[in-house]
Amino acid sequence: MTVRRLSKRCLSLVLVGLIGCGGISLARAEGPALRADMIQALQSMQSQLESGDDAAVASRAADSASRLEGGNAADRWARALFLQLAASANARQGHDLQAAEQLAEARRIDDVPDARRLSWLLQEARLRLSGGQTRQGADLLTRWVERSGGDDASRWLLVQARASLEEWSAAANSLDRLRASGTEGWSQSQRQLASTVYQQAGRFDDALTLLGDDASSPGVWRRAAGLAQQAGDDGRAAAIWESGWRRGVLTSDDDLVQLARLHIAGGTPARAAEHLEDWLDSGRLDSGGANLRLIAQAWTAARDHGRALSAWKTLAEKSGRAEDWQQLAELAYGWGEWQTTRDALSRLREAGGEISGRDWLLQGIASLQLGDREAARNAFQQARTAGVEQAQQWLDSLGSA
What we know:
Number of strands: 0
Oligomer: single chain
Order of helices and strands: HHHHHHHHHHHHHHHHHHHHHHH
Largest sheet: none
């Protein structure tokens, strides 16, 4: 799953009450006593905002807050409430960052009750996230969660924010708190997000458990391995796929071949080759060229010289393809298996493959290593004719003109 960038839609921002859930009465009960004219002004602006006159309220409330700067405790409390009204009006117009700054200013005012300051902290966090200030919003939301204890909605928002920032460990820590109360009610998209977070944090077992409750579903295991691959951990993907195979879930021919490929990519190619040979011997997989080639590639990746050369020879004899004899010759030469090199090049010619100057050079070197100087001289002469400059040096070493 690709983590979505935060947006207004995914934040589902809900503006908290304009003065508070209890309106002016609650505001009067929370902070210092307000003058009658202050209460009247606040009520007037709240009614104006409820009627949809957002722009007028944003301007009027900001002006009122500015005039009260530096006053007494009641003035400071009223100023904070005017700032919240301005923030609410700006947020309704989509001016999220301007609203966030006004709430930040309101939170810094002395005499603001702790409960109101905490409420504004949450609103500011959401506004900054909605306005694209993801890191600032995530940090503020973290502070709110730590101080208030948080709720599921805010924790999911925090997980999304940290994931957007690719701060996987922090996102995983928030998920741990959500999991503590159970995962039964999680939606599929939440499970996918959680699995992505745990995967990126390196917690693959946690990621696997969240992909689905049905351990007998092949899709669950395939998605888990896919997450590991996306994270660049082919070894872990192979281990997950192996577990699914051992549980009797991933058993199709394609599943078996994919398990072998994952083992090769994940650094356990010998395991891939052993699996493939067992499946071919038991008839579970057919002995067609594709599977034989995969065995040869696996033993080659494992650098098991004897088994790799034997596997390539078996493949080449079955396929009759010049390319397979060429591959066998190249490997044998690289590993110093001179007789196999010479034999493979001979079979390459028999298969009608194109013999390059390099092929003649390799045959000459292999023949020389085997003590067959005459065959070596002939091969080097063919290589020289084909334009291989090194061939003359080898001929000179043999005392030939």
